[in-house]
Predict the 3D structure of the following.
Amino acid sequence: MTSPIRHPRRVRKLTDCHNVDDFRLLAHRRLPYPVFHYIDGAGDDEITKARNASAYDDCDLVPNVLAGVEEIDTSVEIMGRKSALPLILSPTALQRLFHWQGERAVAKVAERHNLWFGISSLSSISIEEIGANYAGPKMLQYYYHKDSGLNTALVERAKAANFDAITLTVDTIVSGKRERCLHSGFTTPPRITPASFLSYATKPSWALNFLFRERFSLPNLETHVSEGSNESISIQDYFNSMLDTSLDWDKAEKLRSDWGGTFCLKGIMSVADAKRAADIGCDAIMVSNHGGRQLDGSRSPFDQLEEIVDAVGDRIEVICDGGVRRGTHALKALSVGAKAASGGRLYLYALAAAGEEGVERAVTILKEEIERGMRLMGATTISDLSRDNLRWR
């Protein structure tokens, strides 16, 4: 489980933030506790969430030297689009609850750095607005609903908005038990209760932005369902009542066909599922456990990466999603054979801490860590990274 929040470094402003954990500390200062713990929390005992990050600690880098690293190239092609870094800003829901700029801030930073990013079906900015205003590579994280009309509408809207990929999330047919949210009473939109009132009241900047800026809603969903936009509901209850538990490989394959473009599955953790994804014509898979929010006690993506890359890496792009807190984490995943590393909390804490400025600082820090790490490892291109540079404890 994540260590308790403390402030030994006196992280009080954006310039005090020098790593992802610093942004986490600042986000904790600035968010009402139900909102912070929605971002920070995970399933059950949060063992898997903790393992997602600690897995990288069990793998050591073995650098080469005297490699002439004055000029390096950190770019890579991911799902048919060139990215300046082997890093994806994973799609996450409800971002305007964390900061009033929400997905707009993340999209601007991703476009500025030429990175893949995604918005969720449960995003607080519409598919159309993102498509019209941001030219960088972008994906729609697709939740498969019981409402077939909503499912069809999401595909058609993503097509019309010229999204580059649909990423079907396959590990949320029921919700994990998010106990922090059960304790805090977190809902979307937030429902102010006697227990949570003080937390919201003592964060006046957040409260004023939420109350007096544009109305919070889930614009990709509210044409079909009122829950989440006009009716408060917990994410756990939303998943359990709205998402289709009959989702199977046939439906995933039909969705891929209906979309007709670049198609990714997010939430693949087993070799058997990775092989099946390649068999049905997926372009990529995200090895992911939903940030530890779903099946607690499951393996971390980095722990599973090697066997999945060995099984299907020559047939499909493999992205390691989750637990990334440092540029060296990304380099370890790439050395195993991942096409890219990705994560949500790595920029969500920064968004909550300081909006677009925070995300920009977080991405810049990770960029610098990747560049510095490559130079110290003697790698001038991503293709120079291999398992020869790794040793497991």
In short: The CA atoms of residues 190 and 232 lie 7 Å apart. The domain at 19-392 is CATH 3.20.20.70 (TIM Barrel). The mean pLDDT is 95.
